[in-house]
Batch of 3 targets.
Target 1
Amino acid sequence: MSLPAAGAGVDLAPFVDLAHRLADAAASVVRPYFRSGLEVIGKQDASPVTIADRDAEAAMRVLIGKAYPDHGILGEEHGQERTDAEYVWVLDPIDGTKSFISGFPLFGTLIALMHRGRSVLGIIDQPILRERWVGVEGRPTTFLGKPARTRACTDLAAATLYSTAPEMFRGADAPGYAKLRGQVKLPRFGGDCYAYGQLANGHVDIVVEARLQPYDYLAMAPIIEGAGGRCTDWQGKALDMASDGRVCAVGDPRLHKDVLRALAG
C-alpha cells in the first residue's frame, strides 16, 4: 500500500504552534546581541558566526527535543540528527549574519519543517523589527497574522529583482544571471531572507540566488507559494534537501518561465 503524499491528511496546527515558539525563543536570544559589539568568529568556510547564532539554534533544538524527540533536525550551527525521520526541522538561526554583525536589521531566523522530504511549513522571523511571515502548505501565507499576497507582474522589463550578493553568481551561473539582470527594470542586491518576505508582501517581483544551503532556502517555498507565487530551483523543480542551492522565486507565476529562460542563458 502506498503512503499518502507529504502533508496529505496531516494536522499541521501543532507544528505551527511549535514553530512560533521556536521563533520566539530564537528572537529572545538574538535581540540582546544586536548592535552590542559581540565577537565575530570565523567558520571554516570563511563566513562569520556569532554566539547569537549558536545560542539561538541551541534554544530551538531544546524545544524540538522536548516536544517531538523522534523528529530530525538540520541546523546551520549544530549539524544534523535523524535527518531520515518522517519529520525534519531545518533551522537557520540568523540568515544574513553579515547584516546582523553590521547592525542592519535585514536578517532573519528561518524555520522549515520537512514531511517525507517536502517542505510543508516555513517561517521568516525578523526579531528586531518584530516581523514574521508564516507559510503552511494548503493555507494562505500570513505576515503579522494577516494574509500576505504577491503582486501581479508579467513583464521582466517591469520587474524588481533581488539577490543577496553578486559574488553568488560565478562560473556557469554568471552568464544567465547577467542576462536576467539586464532584462529587469530594477536589479538590487542585499536583504538575504528579508527579500523573500518583501516578495511575499508584494514589494519585490523576483528573488534569484545561488550557492545556498538547505537551511537557507527550505523555509521559502511554503511562504512564497502560499502568498501566490512560485519558488523552485533554476530548472523549475521543487526545492528539497538535495537541491543544488540555486533558487528562483517569483511573485507572479506567469513570470516564472521567462526568468528560467533568462537564467538558462
Target 2
Amino acid sequence: MRRISILGSTGSVGRSTLDVVDAFPDALRVVGLAAGRNLDLLASQIERYSPEIVSVRDPGDVAALRSRLKRNVEIVCGADGASAVASMPSADAVIAAIVGAAGIPPVYAALKAGKRVGIANKEVLVAAGDVMTRAAAENGGEILPVDSEHNAVHQALRCGDHAEVQRIVLTASGGPFLRRDLNTFGDITIADALAHPTWKMGNKISIDSATMMNKGLEVIEAHHLFAMPPDAIDILIHPQSIVHSMVEYVDGSFIAQLSTTDMKFPIQYALLYPERVAAPFARLDLAKIRTLDFTAVDPHRFPAVELAYAACRAGGSMPAVLNAANEIAVERFLAGELPFTGIVDMVSRVLDRHAGNVAPIRSVDDALAWDGWAREEARGIDVAVRQ
C-alpha cells in the first residue's frame, strides 16, 4: 500500500489523482490533502478518503472547514500547513499540483523528507530546479514528472542510457492560435485564448498554452529533470496531442510515448512506478487517429518560446524571473489590463531589467526573493503595453 499526500487536491490534477486512487484502492491510500478555497469540495474529499491531516490556504478557513465536517481531522493552514502535509511521516509519495510559486516550499519540504514527489507544477523546477534536484539527491527524495510531456520523456528514457541520448523532443498542440492570421493577434479576446482545442485546463495554463510559454517553461523543467542542456531539448508542434514527447538516441532511433489525452495516465505512472499496472481508463485507438502531424515552432507566432530558451541558457535567477513575470502578465491579461500580445512584451521587459543582475539560486528563499522582485516589476509596467 502506497500512502500519498495531494497538494492541490481540489484542482484538476488533484481530482484526477483521486480518480487514480479510486481505480487502485488496494495499492493507494490518501493520508494528506492540501487545497485552496473550495471548502465544499475539500470537505467531501475528507469525508470520502479520511486523511490524517488537511491544509487550507487561509487561517480563517480552518473553522469554516471544520464546520462542514462530520469527522475529526487535524487541520493546518498556510505555507507551513502545506509543507506539513507534504512532509508528513506517514506519506510515501506526494502529488504536487499547487499552482505557482506557492508550490515551491512544500515540494522542497517533501524532498527534504525523502519523499517521492510527482510534480505537476512547472514553476517549482523552473524557479528552483537546482535547489530541488539537490534536495532530492541529498535526502533520498525522488522527482517524477506528472506533466504529460515530461512523463513521456521519463518513460522513453527507460529504453537507453543517458549517454546514448541525442536530444529530447517535447510536443505541443499549438494551442488555439496555431493557424490564426498573425495580423489579427491584436484582436484576440480572453475567450479566444481560453479555448484550447485539446485539453481542458485552468485559466492560467490555458493562456500559457496559447502563447506557448508553457512549452518554454517545459524546456527549463526538462533541463533540470533530465540533466540535458537546453540546446538538446527541442519542441515540435503536434496538433493531435497523441505523441506526448519523444527521445532521439544517438543511433537515430526515436522512442515516443503515446496515449489518450488524460492526466490520469501520467499520475498513475508517477504513483505506481516502476510497475505498470492494468488501468480501467480509456485506451488509444490508433486506427481511428490515422495521421500524426509534426511541424516546427514559428518564432514569430510564438515569441515566448525563445524568451524561455534564453532564460534557460542564462540560468541562475533568470528562469525564476521569467516565470513570475509571466504569471503577472497572464493575470493582467485575464483582468483585461493587457492585450494578448502584451503578455510576452511585459515578460520581455522584465527580463531586460534583470539581465545585468542574474544571481545563483542556492535556496528556496533565493527563488522566492527573485520571484517577488519580478512580480513587482511586472505590476509596475502598464501604459506602454495597454490597448
Target 3
Amino acid sequence: MSALRKVLVIGSGLGGLTLAQSLRGGGIDVAVFERDASPWDRPQGYRLHLDDDAVNAAREVLPGHLVALFEATSQFTEPFTTILKTDLSVVRRLPAHDDHGDVWPGRENRVHANVDRATLRQILMSGLDDVIHFGKELVRYEDTPDGVTAYFGDGTTAHGDVLVGADGIRSAVRARRAPHLTTVDAGITALYGRLPLNAARSRVPAEALQDIFAIASDDRKVFLGLGSVRFPTAPARAAADHSPGTAVRDQDDYVVCVVGGRHQFFPATGDLSGERLRDLAARTVADWPGLAADLIRQGDAESFFPVRMYTSVPGTLDAPTNVTLLGDAVHAMTPTLGRGANLAMRDATLLGRTLRTVAAGDRELDEALHHYERDMTAYGFSVVRQAARIGEQRMAQNPLPE
C-alpha cells in the first residue's frame, strides 16, 4: 500500500493552486512554493477564456462559497468566436467546438466564461494562506529513500512524498524530470493591454463583446484580438459577503486588447514603456480602415506589456517517478485556441483525483502517476499540435519541429 502524506507543488499559477485546493479538500498535506515575492510581481495577462475544463475544475475543487464567488465574477459568454474585418465589421461567428471526453460526467457541458486572471487567482488562493510560500525559487530536487527533497535559492528545503512541477514554460522541475522535452520560439510577439468597456462598446459590434473572443487580421497576418470581461457587481459583492477571508479587489469592466504578429513587426519591445507599447500597437494597424488604431489609443497606457510566444515540442515522459508535471510546465502552447489555462486546471484536477486515491490506499503511486501522465501528455500534446496548426494559418506561427 502506498503512503502519501505530503505533496510539494512548485508554482502558484492557476494549475498549482487548483491542485492545492483539490488536495486540501481531500485532507492531504500540501505546500506550494512560488519564486515570486508576491502574487502580483509580474504582469501575467488579463482576460482568460474558460471552457468546460476550467469551469468544472473550479466547481469540483473549490468549497461552495468560493464556487459562488467564481461564478459571480465570471462573464458567461455566447459559444462563438467573432471573426472581424480590418474595419471591425463582422464577417462571421465560428461556433466553439468542445471535446472534453468523459472528464466531467454529470456536469454541465459547453459552458464558456471570460474571467479576469487576477480575480480567478485570488479566488483559487483563498483559504491557502498557510500553504503558499513566496520567494522560493527551486534550485534542484533530490530523490530520497522516503520521498523527494526540494532545495530553494534562499537555502531552505522541503520534503514530501511527491513533487509536482506547476512552474510554467521555463519549468525548473521539467529541466530535470524530462530534459528531453523542449520549447521553441513560435516566432510571434503580442502586445497586451486593457481598454475601457465603454470605449470599445462605441467602436466594435455587439457580438465582439458577447462572444468568447473577436479577432481581425490583415494580409501580413498581423492580428487584433478583443475579449470583454464584465463583472456583475451586485452578485459578486453578495457572494463575497458570504466568503469569509476572501478579498477580491473591485474591478471595472474592460476589454482586453491584443495586437500581435511576427517578431519583425514588434522590435525591441522589452525596452518600451507601456505608453510606447500602446502607440506601437496602434501604429501597427494604422493602415486598417475604420477605428482600429483609434480604439487601441483609448487603452490604459500603463496596462500594455509585451509577450514573446513560445510553444512546447510534443514528446513523451519516461517511467513515472515521485516527480510529475502539469500545465505549461509540460505542454505549453500558443493562445490560438484559448486552452492553456483550461488544460492546466484540468491536469490539476485529474492529478488531485489521482493522488487522493493513492492517499486512500486504493492505488499504488507508480501505477496512478503512470495513468495520469499517459492521459495528460496524450491530450495536452494533441492540443499543442492543434494550436500550432491554427497559429500557422492565422498568425504565421513557426511550425513545430518534426
